[in-house]
Amino acid sequence: MEKILSFIIPSYNSQGFLDKCIPSFANAEVLDELDIIIVNDGSQDDTAAVAEKYCRMYPGSVRLISQENKGHGGALNTGCAAAVGKYLKAIDADDWVVTEALPAFVKELRSCTADVVLTHYHMNNITTGEVAAWKSFPGEFGRSYSFREIMERWKDFDRVLTFHGITYRTDFYREKGIQLSEHVFYEDNEFATVPCCYAEKILPLDLFVYEYRVGDVQQSVSDENQLKRIGHTQTVLERLIQEYDRLAMPEDAAGREFYCMKVQGLLLSYYITSLLVEKDKKKGRAMAAAMMERFRKEMPRVYQLSTKQYRVFRTMNLLHLSKDAWEKIKSSRVYNRLRGNHDFS
To answer: pLDDT value at position 221?
Structure first.
């Protein structure tokens, strides 16, 4: 049977997560149309053995590729190169999918021609138990949008134009994508930015597919790890600057504006970490100022988009305010009135 959808699952020391992740794909209605690729990225635990169990349990649908450690990006590169589905979607090994949504999702993809398909996802906080819904709000689900249309309604789409919300047409990804940076964290920003900016047709669906696990202090998105790995964020930002110079599209293209908005989002995270999380306030200011100057020279549009945030965070840094203070500001009525423009997201 033709494979409609490849799921790429980068797995490093993931033996404790695969027993939740892999069974979530086991919907008998569509399992034969799924290509589930577990990429064992040089794990030192029993990840391979657990994966092999599921290869035996679901032959023809689950397969294992083992390689020496190349990091999350290297594992995605391997899985995307091996995908045989019409579409491909990346799923981290500690996350899972909504099993009952798969038949409707696959049905849409069978006849779909869009370059990018967008779906909703949940953020599952394992510490607080909170489940938050991240959705798109198009005027009409099930019809394709151009980037021009999407950028005119950015706040209706931005939450799902992410690693967790994006599904790529496989041929499109291979033509427009890049070899993701290896041995660094946060390269998922490359995955969700570089190919996507070229999309001519983007299809939002009213489906929850991805279940994103958060709230673990060991995760790369924790404050402690973002500070420890701030050099990784710098590496990805530098890569995105380099790729921007290579974009084969007009300067006024909506895809370029999308690219700048995505880079701004990562840059915002960098400012929060350097100016609000870093305990050495002077060091943090120097790091942020150097990055701001880099963007002023190399990507003026991102510099322009980021100026307000940078000034706010620098002021908070000088006042020795923390990220917790920023979270309180974000929840305030004043902030919610200000955030209506792109400069205050």
So the answer is: 54
What is the DSSP annotation of 61-126? Answer: TEEEEEES--HHHHHHHHHHHH--SSEEEE--TT-EE-GGGHHHHHHHHHH---SEEEEEEEEEET
Tokens of 39: 């990429």
pLDDT digits (tens, 9 = 90+) for 247-263: 989 988 999 999 999 99
What does the radius of gyration of the chain's CA atoms come to, in whole angstroms?
A: 20
Averaged pLDDT, 176-189: 93
Cβ contacts of residue 172 below 8 Å, gap of 6+? 115, 116, 195, 198, 199
- Reduce the DSSP state of residue 1 to 3 states and report it: coil
Contact between 274 and 287 (Cβ < 8 Å): yes
Mean pLDDT of the chain: 92
Rounded-to-integer distance, Cα 182 and Cα 184, Å = 6
The C-alpha angle 62, 65, 68, rounded to 5 degrees, equals 155
8 A C-beta contact, residue 79 and residue 9 = yes
